[in-house]
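User: Quick sanity check before I run a bigger batch. Here is a single chain. Can you write out its predicted 3D structure?
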Amino acid sequence: MTVMSWTDEVASGMLCAPDAQIPLDLPEVVPAQRVPFALDLAGELSQRLPSPGDGATLQLWDAMARIAAYDLTVARALEPHLDALAILHQAGVPLTEVGADERSTWGVFAAEGPDGRLSARETTTGWVVDGVKPWCSLAGQVSHALVTAWTSDTTRRLFAVSLGDDVRPRPGRWASRGLVEIPSAPAEFADVAAVPIGDDGWYLQRPGFWWGAIGVAACWYGGAAGVARRLAPRTGGAGRAPDQIAQLHLGEADTLLFAARATLWHAAARVDDPEARAGDEVLARRVRGLVRTVADDVLGSTARATGPAPLTFEEEHARRVADLSVYVRQDHGERDLAALGAQLTADRHEG
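Assistant: Done. Predicted structure follows.
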């Protein structure tokens, strides 16, 4: 039996045993141009990674977590591409039907905000979307996107669009110190041809909506594992020998990451169980809440254990910390926990 080091087993972000993993073949050194590398990787992995809910969800999330432990910018660019393909797969819509092919790269733009409103209308030649959509990550770099647009004052629908010259991201507002290469800004759509995916409301009502939300949490887990790598004992006599406090922080991080890993194992089994569909929202909110807490606690524990030097003199570690600090804020903290509590209360009353 081969004994793996803590760095290989935990800090690598792995969720599966090595013999069950999908090979990733990542270069040892993260390429300087992370987003182009991620989008090239997207085309390659699209052919090899399964869709959630098809029986191999743990292998999918394992790959996403390992990529996030490798580099969070790469994972953040890749995750919506995989989510978009999973959505199209669930809708039974082939790429050719939406003007795309295997080389296309995808974003998912479904947020709403005060910067504008994207509307959809049907014309004599088909559907078009027009207006402003907030939080359009990499809108100037991916070729296609799935976007939600208002079809009436109260209903929204999902559409597939090609991001050509009639889609213009607004420049200049991305001030983030984390995920610097993943700008997310409003984009202006000028009567862009659109292909409807599902009926009004389908995007939020389908089971896969919550599966994709857990996939993001798998990336948070991988990012936290990558940050915790800095706690691993140095080899070759580098640095001072770990004292009891250093061992405490390592033990704390290991315990936290184990909790997140076990949660994702459980969630993958539930997602692949057709009989468990009714509990998808509660499952996703629980998983995201726990993994977000783990990520926050690993960030804090690692910072206390290592002090300011790695944050100020080690480019890779400082970038990991900044990227994870931004990425994990996709969870809305106490608001999402309150939503979970409201769901549990409603379920109890209905029961």
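The first helix runs from residue 6 to 11.

User: Great, the batch can go ahead then.
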